[in-house]
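Whiteboard transcription, Tuesday session. T.W. wrote the structure tokens on the left side:
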């Protein structure tokens, strides 16, 4: 059986991983002020976005324009119902984006129209589709997608993969350290992010106090505050290394950075995390942070995610 994995461009997976495993990406359009920018998880375009400072603080207004119900329907009916026999569609948390709702609405039309398309192409009529909210963001979504790919390659059935992913969704933890608080205060708050109010923004900007943000089961909030960005990143990486030693539910730690990915191994604490991952057969996947994430949390931010049972970082 041919099983496919579809994600939106908020999913922080490396491009070489996406290409090697045929992961299908639904792009998102960003409107920043009066400028339109496509987010297609293209590394060169993303690097140019950061290097040219296309997202300026002077622009208070920014919004993402995800695939519509009709666009998702066409993606499946024009391509995916022929390329695959079963597809898992993993989206960013439904609390931050309408992509999940759009995909659910599109799935109803897809499942009523695919038979004739497959029949005309001379392939068996049976086709299946599961739409899942990752209940997470960015690297958290990437952990789940990477595990889905691993299970597909291991020959698991759709029911086995679906059961595993639904469990993993509840166990996924994503952390983020922003380099600058402006974007979260000005923009993410408009999407329901309440972790940084005016007082925290003013104090953090004055004293260089950075929050470590945590997303789990749709909820986001600060779990710690540190003095300085590098101290926050070190706290994050060293804590993740300890969690790797304790054991993960999926053999991946996903990291994204709103800058040049070759700089990630130079960040404080990364060596400790890398050594722990190597010792416990855990893959560390590093990717550029999506432009969609960057307009909400700011360039220069670091995100890290893993799946673990029970408590996360301390």
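and on the right, the sequence the group agreed on:
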């Amino acid at each position: 059986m041919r099983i496919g994995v579809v994600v939106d461009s908020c999913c922080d997976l490396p491009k070489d991983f996406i290409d090697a495993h045929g992961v299908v990406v639904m792009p998102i359009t960003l409107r920043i002020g009066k400028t339109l920018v496509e987010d297609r998880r293209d590394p060169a375009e993303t690097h140019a976005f950061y290097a040219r400072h296309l997202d300026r603080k002077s622009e208070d207004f920014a919004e993402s324009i995800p695939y519509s119900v009709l666009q998702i329907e066409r993606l499946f009916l024009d391509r995916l119902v022929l390329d695959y026999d079963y597809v898992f569609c993993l989206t960013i948390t439904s609390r931050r984006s309408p992509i999940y709702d759009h995909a659910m609405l599109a799935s109803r039309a897809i499942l009523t129209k695919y038979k004739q398309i497959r029949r005309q192409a001379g392939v068996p009529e049976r086709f299946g589709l599961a739409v899942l909210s990752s209940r997470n963001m960015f690297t958290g979504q990437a952990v789940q997608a990477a595990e889905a790919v691993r299970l597909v390659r291991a020959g698991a059935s759709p029911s086995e993969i679906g059961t595993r992913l639904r469990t993993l969704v509840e166990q996924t933890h994503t952390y983020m350290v922003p380099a600058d608080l402006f974007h979260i205060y000005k923009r993410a708050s408009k999407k329901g992010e309440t972790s940084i109010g005016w007082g925290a923004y003013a104090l953090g900007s004055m004293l260089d106090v950075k929050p470590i943000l945590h997303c789990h089961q749709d909820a986001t909030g600060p779990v710690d505050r540190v003095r300085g960005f590098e101290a926050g990143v070190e706290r994050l990486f060293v804590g993740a290394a300890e969690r790797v030693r304790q054991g993960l539910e999926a053999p991946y730690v996903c990291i994204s950075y709103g800058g040049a990915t070759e700089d990630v191994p130079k960040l404080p604490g990364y060596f400790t995390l890398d050594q722990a991952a190597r010792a416990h057969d855990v893959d560390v996947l590093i990717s550029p942070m999506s432009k969609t994430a960057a307009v909400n949390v700011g360039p220069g931010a670091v995100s890290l995610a893993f799946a673990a049972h029970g408590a996360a970082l301390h």
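Someone added at the bottom: The longest strand covers residues 219-227.
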